[in-house]
Design brief:
153 residues, alpha/beta, 5-stranded mixed beta sheet, 4-stranded parallel beta sheet, 4 helices, 11 strands
Length: 153
Amino acid sequence: MSKMIISGGRVVLPSGVRKTDLLIENEVIAAIGDRRHFVNADHLIDAGGMIVLPGLLDVHVHFLDRFMGSVSLQDYYSGTKGAAFGGVTTIIDFAHQEKGQSLAEAIRLKREEADGHVTIDYGLHAGITDPTPETLSEMKGVIRSGIPSFKAY
């Protein structure tokens, strides 16, 4: 179990910005308040003079995207590393199907490109480019697999 305290920063909260401390356990904010009330932690980060933001999400990226005769510039390593330096902790990319390809296959191939190369959390949107009856029948299964969003062309 990993525990970290971020201390002395101005923390952006839903109620506003205030100087406070955070206890992070296993990558989740476990407590907000005076660090003297927290248990010992493995790491202490002094955020004095800094603003502490929650992890940002970029829900529309295109990494190694093969679409309309081109391939996007960023790969999963360089794209997510750059995102992390900007405070982004999660991205959502597109798994566009090719003509005749199932959504499941497009998603599987996209995950193969990403897994082992991302430096932050990621998710996928399913991109429907061949809206056949077979493709449309896959949608409930795609949602059950954890991808609830679609973009149709």
